[in-house]
Amino acid sequence: MGDDETSEELKELYRLREEERIDFHGLNIDKYQLSNIRIILKTEEQARLIIRDILWLVDSKKINKSTFGYILFFNKLEQNLDKLTDKTYLNDEIENGLISLDKYFNIDQIKKERISKQINDLCEKYKDYNEFRVDHQGWLSGLSYPCLNDNINPISRILVELNIIKITKLGRYLIDLPILQPTFCLENNEQFVKEIINPELEKILGINLTYYSIGHWMAMHENREIRIDDSPFYTEPNDDEWNFAHRDIDY
What we know:
The chain is α+β, with helices and mostly antiparallel strands. The protein is about 35% helix and about 15% strand. A 3-stranded mixed β-sheet has the order 1-2-3. It has a 3-stranded antiparallel β-sheet with strand order 4-7-8. The protein has a two-stranded antiparallel sheet with strand order 5-6. The relative contact order is 0.12. The chain has helices spanning about 5-20, 45-60, 85-95, 110-125, 155-160, 185-205, 215-220; strands at about 35-40, 70-75, 100, 140-145, 165, 175, 210-215, 230-235.
């Protein structure tokens, strides 16, 4: 499949999503009848995007982890069509491009236990934190969370396994800790995440984090509590295909 065809397919997905004919973002499949699906792709980048969406669907409990088996990509197939009859070449290409999805669900248990303990210690350390610059409720109330930059790396998989991740319908992975949202003021909650919690978590996890904030507007107008799927007040760009919150129409 050519890049132009892929682009057209994405445009069609966007169109269908706007018409609410797709129930969830990602691969639109029958989650009950299919299992161990194999996908063959043209490039490694396509494989990364597909894996990202599959993990999002599994982590959101929209499909079972056994739905997909492996991904296979061939980066240089078009340039080497004359070698397709060479079994050694094909075996090498398959070995280099084969990605088993099982590896994203096989967690390093020792590292998981270490991270779990350190996060518990972090929560204990800041459970009574109250050193905020804003000494009133502020003009805007809201929630703020540490946010992962991807869902593929081993640390992200550990955090999902620890059940401390909330996933938005836009594909953002939020770290949810009991010490977050210490005030009703969004400015204070953002300060707590950006200046206190994220730097500490980055030391523990060894990865860079961003943050994700939700204001109270939608909840106020609908007379309910704030939800993580409300329009974000702040979210750092990742990529437009995954994170629809970066389109003007969503604001």
